[in-house]
Structures are given as C-alpha cells and as structure tokens.
Amino acid sequence: MVEVLSPAGDRESFYTAINSGADAIYMGAPKFNARMKASNFSLDDMREVVRYAHLKGVKIYVTLNTLVTSSELKEVVSIVGDLWAMGIDAFIVQDFGIVYVLKGVYPDIVLHGSTQMAVHNWRGAKVAKEMGLSRVVLSREVNLDDIAEIREKVDIELEVFVQGALCVAFSGNCYMSSIKCMASGNRGECKQLCRLPYTATIKGKAKSGYLLSPRDISNIDYIYDLITLGVVSFKIEGRLRRSGYVGKTTEVYRDVVDAFYEARDIDVSGHKATLKKVFSRGEFIPGYIDGNDIIETSINNHIGQRVGIVKSSVKFKDIYKITIALDAGKTINSGDGIKFKVKDDYISMGVGNVEYNGNNVVVYGKNYIHNDSIVYLTVDSKFEENIPDKSKKRDIHLSISAMQGNKFEVKATSGNHTKMFYGDILAPAKTRAVTEENIITQFSKVDKNIWNIIFDEIVLDDVFMPLSALNEIRREIIECFESIYYTVMDMTRYTISMPHIEEIESVYSTMAIISDKAQIGKIKSEFERIIFAPTIYSIGAVEGFLKEYKKYYDNKPILKLPIIAMADDLKVIDSIVDKFRDDIAIMIENIYGLDYISTGIEVIAGTNMNIANDYSATHLRRMGVNEMVSSIEKWCPTIKGTYKVSKGRLVLMTLAHCPYKTIAGSTCDKCTFSGDIALEGAGHNFTLRRYRVARCYYELVDNVVSESRGSNIIVDLR
Questions:
Q1: pLDDT of 314-325, one tens digit each?
Q2: Alpha helices in 7-109 (DSSP H)
Q3: Residue 236 and residue 218: Cα distance in Å, rounded?
C-alpha cells in the first residue's frame, strides 16, 4: 500500500500528523537539514516521538539533506549514530560526502535520496541505487512518462511530492540566496528571493509582478495514476507550516489513498476545497505532471477564501476597531487568521476578540483598513481543529482460558507475532468467582491511543483469580509487544572511524566555458582546455564545434551536459555521447551523468554536482570521475585539487518552465522567443538565457561578474 508521508516541523505537527492518518513522518535533525527555520527536534524529542510513532505503526524519516563541510562530517556521523540507535527508519540525504561517510561507518543504514539530489531520469535513479540508496525522492520536474521509465528500468523505491510549495529552480541547484545573501538554500537558510517582485524586460517591453514565484502544487487528480505507476510514497511539503495545515492535508490524502484500495468513490472537489482553504498561492497546479505553467504573478502567499468587505475602521485606544460585513454563510472567529486586500497590497492579522452584530462582525487590529477592502479568511481555526482520529492502532487479539486445575492462559496475537502468557494454577472459587466482565475490564486498561484489545475467546470456569494477577499479565503482554514494535539498534557492532580521503590533483591550470565555436580562435592562447556549453544540444552542433576546435587544440574538448535531462532530453544526450565518445570529455552537472563513466568516456564533475567537502570528492573519484569543480556556494571552501569558477557571470538557478510564457504569453506552438530577458528586482540585476535539448530550459544568470578563490580556475565566457 502506498505511503502517506507527512511533514513535522515541531511536536504539535508530529502528533497532528499521527492522528490524521500518516503512515510515515519526516522531520529535521537538530542540524544539517534544509528547514533550519523550523523548530525541529532535539535528540531527547526524537527518542520520545520515535518510540510513540513505532508503537503506532508509523515510520520516521530524518532529513540530513544539506551540503556540509569536511569538518562537519564527524558531527554528522555522531548525530546519525544517536538517531540510528533510536530506530530511525531512514535518513534523507543530498550530499555525496554524507552518503560516502554514512555507508562507510554504518553499512546497513537506510538512506533516501533527497529531492535536493535532483534525481529525475532513469540514469540518475540507477546511480542512486548503485550508491546504496533504497529510495529517491524524485525531482518535482518529472511527469508521468518520466516516472514510468524510471520505474521500468530501475528497481528502486520512488517517492513524489503531491502537495505544497514548489521551487522555481531545479531543486538542489539554486544559488541565488547563497550568492546574493550569504544564506544558502542548500544549508537550510534560503531567503526566498524568488518570492519577491521583479520586472522583466524583453526588447524594451516590461512586465512586473512575482515573476519567479510558483503556485503550490496539488496532485490529488493524479493519485491513482501515480499508484498505478508504482510510486511507493506520497510526500506532503510543509515542515514550516502550522499543525492545522499538516492535519487537514494528511486527512485528505489518507482518504484518497484508502479510497483507491477500497475501490470507493470520493468527493475530490470537496477535498480540493479543503486543501485550498488551508493553504494555496492562487489556484493549485499539478506541477510538471501536466504542463509547466507554474508561476502566479499576482500574489506570493496564501490568499485564503473571501468572507466579506470592510465597512469601517475606527480608532479605538491605540488600535483600530474594524467592522466587516460578512458574505452570506461566512464567519470569523477568535483564533482565525484574516487578510485584507487594501488597494494593491495585502495586510494579514490574527483574530483576537470578536463581536457579532447581525451579519457584521467587529475585529481589532493595529492597522487602519480602508472601507470596501476585501477580507479573506486565511486560517479557519475551528475547521483545522476538527480532525477525526484516523491514526493507526495496534490490534492485540486475546484468547483466554481460566479453568480449574490449569494455569491461567492467554494467547496474544498482534500482527505476525503470537505469544503465550501464563498465571498460577487456578483453584475453585470459594466465594466470588472471576467473571468475564472482570477479565474484559482489566485487560482493556491500556493506552487506547496505541492499543486496540480484541477478545477472540474467553473460556471460563468457576475459579478465583485476584484482579491484581490479571493486571500483572496485562502489563506483561503490553511490555512484550512494546519491545517488539519499538527496538533500539545495537551500536556496538559498528566501528566508528571516518573513511579514507583520497588526494586529488587537477591537470590543467586554466579552462574556459564557451557557447560559440567562433570564440575558439580568439582565446586559444589564454586557456589550456575548452568547455563547450551549446545553446542547442545536437549532433550537428557538437560536430561543428569539434571541427573548429581541432584547428587550435590537440587535447579533447569538454562537452558540458545539461543539468536537466528529462526522458526525451536524455535520448538526445545519449546519442551525442555515443557518437563522440572517443573525441570528447564530458562535464556532468547532475547525478545522471555519473552513469556515463561506464562507457569509458572522460568525466569531469561540474559546479552543480555540489562538491563541498573532501569526502564528496573522494566518493566521486572512486566512482571514476577524472576531475572536479567545487560548488559555487559562497560559503563553500575550495576543495584541494578541484577547479573553481573564477571569472564570469554565475548561473544561480535553472528553470524548467518557460519565462516567455509567463512574461509574454508565448506558447510552444507559437513561440515568441527573441533573445535574453532582463530581470530586475530586490536590488539585483539578472539575465534569463535559454538553451535547448529536446525541450527548452532557462538559466538565471547573475549580471555581477564573480571573482573567487583557487589556483586552478574556470572562466565562464558565455
């Protein structure tokens, strides 16, 4: 049965997810997780919630999905050791160094590849499996055909996001916040510059709005397709969301999944209304499952549902008394959240005291609100509190025999486990005999949040048995099954020592990235080797480049593979690599590129492989990577023996949607592409430039020329 996987950023959300029917919960470790703004969990907290979850039959996955430095990896090993001992079911990881070290120290540890690892095609999934990962959280750019191909070609568990926020950038490869704010998304500190307003200019025509802010995804219409394709886990985004959101979204997906297996009809429209009520940036989208129209230019946050308009706003002491005329059937209650649309702006507030007067309601806030401002309900506290208990419970079936001359006997079965329990030999009752009611009452005194006692059979003679003896056997039964369902790991079998780091040497002193074969002659005396990043990937483009390159260089040029290669793109890349395997090297920018090592081609790991520590470099070197470029993350130290991008305009993110569609109304059948897009906002200046494989992709380029460290350098001349 497919798993409903819910987020928990704090204890309240954890227990809400359990009660709402989650099969598994993912949460952050005290450090090294991509949601450091969440409350997260201390080790003591973890110990408590893991025990409770396992007794309830719910799995716990811990996120360790950030990039780390070499010096931090010892702490990672220590934290994971503590958590692994508690019985954590799996760790969600991104960093190749973390994978290398954890598999070296704890060989049987269960690791899931984070969506930050950006697995999105079958080659990437194959490499992840070869690394020892048991599951990958697929990139949110995949569609149903991509998933089907991965499922067909690679035997690895697939997890997909079905609800929540969508990153505009290809996950794990957004450096906008890192470069511009020294706050890395790959370190859990993203400043979300993408959610700010921007102005785009195409050939003198400008458009303003939230041009990089995606709407939230909801794949409720595709649940049956995803189950049929063999997806094993449906993930709900939201470790920074309130517990009411976690509860309602979990409740919805629990019902949809159950309905599939029960062949039961459900009211999908009602579920959609629930999901929109708890959080939605405008209208929901299915992400890239169906198309790529993902941007909501008019709003960058939850809009909620309209409930009325403002009639008056009167000064009251040091705040304002705001009278709202409610729409028919709408209410506002203490504890709710509301949002006013004041001209072209939005003002949010929490609702404290509420006074009703017919169809009008009075609330109090610190801001003056103009008359006729529309009022939206963003948090319905009563609605979110009304969550039926759908939590898992452990059944214990009891068959009890209490016969004269025999021991009191209980056969207890829970799941696949059957145990026998015995009391003393029973004598005839002299005064009051034990009754069936006595037995049922005493054996039912359990934590009903966890256990469900089912009496299959009670065979009873006229015997005496003290209630204290019944209670003692009941305690033995519960302790027995607790020890079965919650076990701690024996850590004495592990030798805690850090794996070996290999020395790495770079071969060349300088390399340059270019996109035009005409540039080769101009720069031949400046750089030892050339990296070709085509604007259009094709056999003809590479053939033409090679012909020109050989006029000036004796060594092999390097073809920079695209960071994104969906199923149809991959066919183009495969044909190029197959034809030119003996004539070129390749620079890989995603995990899928590692699969080409087996072809014998020279492989260089590029910046988007996010090499941020010596262990990542060692891991990739052992897999067969020849040379490497350190991550462009601003915090990232220079890894010895790797190259560093030194001069040029850094690529801060790659987009799988079409900005021309957002900005100019372009469509693929009537493409209006006419060159780069200028983008300004938040004090920054960028360029959006296009490249094409089978599909079009866009890169957000920083117009500030970078200067970085390292003696072995790469200059980006694109």
A1: 999 999 999 999
A2: 11-19, 43-55, 73-86, 96-105
A3: 9
